[in-house]
Input
Amino acid sequence: MALSKSSVVVGWKTSSIRRQHELPKKEDFVDDVRYPHVVYVEKPKAQDVDFSDEMIYQEKTTSEMEEVTLKSLNRIPWERVDVSFKRSRQWIFAHSTIQVQLSLPSLALSFTDLSARRFPDLLSR
Output
């Protein structure tokens, strides 16, 4: 994501809450004229992670803190929807176009405008 065409503020790895090797490959991107900004949809999945006190409270490097954060966030199932505003006139409004809604019963985040209810055919691919 970027706030201007030339300055990247948030990287793809950081904004999608994934490790570098977990990012979708370009050949897996979806191409749907009805939803041109949606490039990839990943179904929710939760991971069972065992946390010990030393894992949480010991002093860590930046990369170790990132790993603990990713592990804790992956305990909750996320519907991950990758979007691109690269070829859009709407690129400057990307941050306000993507809306996140908290679902209290499951405590899972889902994209309001990019949910499975509105894009069931993209999730089935």
About this structure: The chain has two domains: 1-41+79-125, 45-77. Confidence is low (pLDDT under 50) at residues 1-9, 106-116. The chain has five helices and four strands. Helices lie at 12-15, 53-57, 62-73, 94-97, 120-123.
